[in-house]
Every structure is written in structure tokens, then in C-alpha cells.
Amino acid sequence: MPKARSKAPARAGATSAAKPAKRSAKRGIAKSAAVRAAVRPKRQRPIELYFWPTSNGLKISIMLEECGLPYELKPVNINRGEQFDPHFLAISPNNRIPAIVDPDGPGGKPVSIFESGAILQYLGRKTGKFYPRNERARIEVDEWLFWQVGGLGPMAGQAHHFRGDAPEQIPYAIARYTDEVNRLYGVMNKRLAERDFLAGKYSIADIACWGWSRNWKRQGQNIDDFPNLKAWFERVRARPAVDRGAKVGAYLREATYQIGQDPVAMKVLFGQRARG
Q: Between 53 and which of 21, 62, 209, 249 could a Cys-Cys bridge form, CB atoms 3.0 to 4.6 Å apart?
């Protein structure tokens, strides 16, 4: 009589088939988790903002607020010479604020940037905001950005100095820089006659210019003489991010503070020559 067929092999086969199925399921779960991790946005580490509440400093706090980027304020008291600290000079060799350190720079590696115009361009490229990718549109933004960093800022700064900070009143210098700021305001007023913003759409050029034009009284100007500029100024100021950015570091400056009445600040800020 033939022997009864053993069922053991069948049971063994069933067991062997079940194990790969379980391993496959585990691999599927692991793969799904990996896909979710890859899709999940990486948390942006805070950008370090080396800052003092000046017109140039506020350009960057406003831009960071507009872009929604996290940042950590690193005050640099320029009235007490903190801009000459070796750590800061390694970031900003021109010993001027603002400067930034982005821990998530190109290639995921940290990068430091000084000069407000360069910082605005970098943040615009990084986020794709307020700095167009289209080359023709970008040229237009760059024109007005460099118009500010090479013209409006330096001339308004000289007007601030000779009108309020200089130890002696020099009529020629006061007239020279007050008139030049007036001319520049006229250029901007004409530009804004048929557009809401300097380069058509709101951009880093507007952010750069707004920080300086907010001090029109100190520059000896009457903003009512420039109605298009005034309407633009209010249009930009109405943006929530501009309001937030303009208030950054307000606690660092006393409301009644005058540089011209501070001999330490006068020595630190003015009359500097090359250092070894």
C-alpha cells in the first residue's frame, strides 16, 4: 500500500511564501516613509541679521519680513564701535551694517553677505520674491536698486550729516546735499507718475528706496511737493510686512537721541581713516 503523502512540505511552502510577503510589506512602508520625508519641506534655520536701526538696516528687516524668512537679530551698536569687532569684520569687511549669515546658503552651506543691495538681491533669488526671474524685468529692478545705493542713500546721508550732525553749520554743504536730494526726489516723482512702483511691480527697489525716503523731513524736503512719491510712500507703508520690518530694533534707539550731541558716536562714525 502506498504511504500517505506528507503535508509537511505544503505547510513548509506556505510558511516560506508568507515571509517574503511580510518583508515586501515592510519595504513598502519604509519606502512610503522615505517619500513623505523627501516631500516634507525642510525647516529653514534662522538667518543671522547683523543690524542697527538705520535706513540701510531696515531694508533687510523689511525684506526678511516680506519673504517670511525666520531670522535672529544680532545688534551691532555702530555708535559704540561694535562694527570694528573682529567677528563682525569677518562678515562685513567694510565695517558697515547690515550683513547677514544664512546657514542654509547655496549648496546647503552657510554664506555671509554684506552690502544691503547684495543682500536684497540674494534674498530675492533665494525666495523668488520681489526680484523677477525675467531678465528684462530684473534689469529694471536693478537699475532702481543701484540708483538708490549709489545716489539716494549717499546723498540723503550727507544731507542728514550736514543738516543735523556736523559740529558746525556749513551753508554750502547744506545747500549742496539738500538740493541734490530734492533733485533725486524729483526723479522718483516723475518715475511714479504712471506706475504704482518703481519697476512696475513691487520689488526690492521699492524696499531699498522707502527706507531712505521716510526721513524726508530730516533731509530738508517737503513731501507734498512730490505727490506721486508721497502716494507711493503711503502705498508701501501700508504693507503689513513693511510696518513690521520698520519697527524692528526700535528699542535700540532712544527717541530723543542725536548723534551730533554724542561725542563718542561722532568720533566712531566720522573722521575714520584706513586701519592696518
A: 249
Backbone dihedral angles phi then psi of residue 61, each to the nearest 5 degrees? -65, -35
Question: What domains lie within the chain, and their CATH numbers?
Answer: 47-129 (3.40.30.10), 135-244 (1.20.1050.10)
Model pLDDT for residues 63-102, shown as the tens digit of each residue: 999 999 999 999 999 999 999 999 999 999 999 999 999 9
Contacts of residue 189, defined as CB under 8 A and 6 or more positions apart, other chains included, come to: 226, 227, 228, 229
Single pTM value for the model: 0.84
